[in-house]
Amino acid sequence: MNKTLFLLGLTMLFSSVAKAQATFAFGWKAGLNLASEISVVDGKRGTTLPAASYHVGLYLDKRIKPTFAIQPGLFIQGKGGEYKEDGYTYTDKLTYLEIPLNFVFYMPLRKGELFYGLGPYAAFGLSAKIKRDNITVDLEWGDRENQIRQMDAGVNFLTGYKFESGVVLGIASGIGLINLSNRNNASFRNQVASISVGYEFGRK
Q: Which helix (H) or strand (E) holds 144?
């Protein structure tokens, strides 16, 4: 059911944007994620060490005005975190299909455009693993106490520079707003900082 609603929302989002009367460009981005998890266990708050991951995906830059655009996208996002316990190092590796909807402002400069923006995202979990040294174990999505909630959502913040050639350099952060834990005495949320390189083409 969650997967059906997710795909339906994706279809409606891109259909509505495609009908808008504005100039547009398509683009892709890929880069490094530094992912961590914000946790609260028995009332004690903590943040894991960052774990290196990646992101890659496509987006549509729909200019409503020359200095303002709506950017829906579709990305594969690696999230998770690293922590130490009982002398071992554990790394959570969570992979999501993520749909951002960013509102982006542009500032024209001589050789391109400076941009900044923010917007919500929704994400559907594709895989969940935990690694200890050289041992990797699959985790389960679901609503039981020993499982992880599969749907995530939060807010993205981004800034960067788009060159006249179409090359895009950016940095971003994403903060999850949904508790992914099913335990009564614990909660954890995703957060990600990223750097990316990409390219835009096809503006009409």
A: none
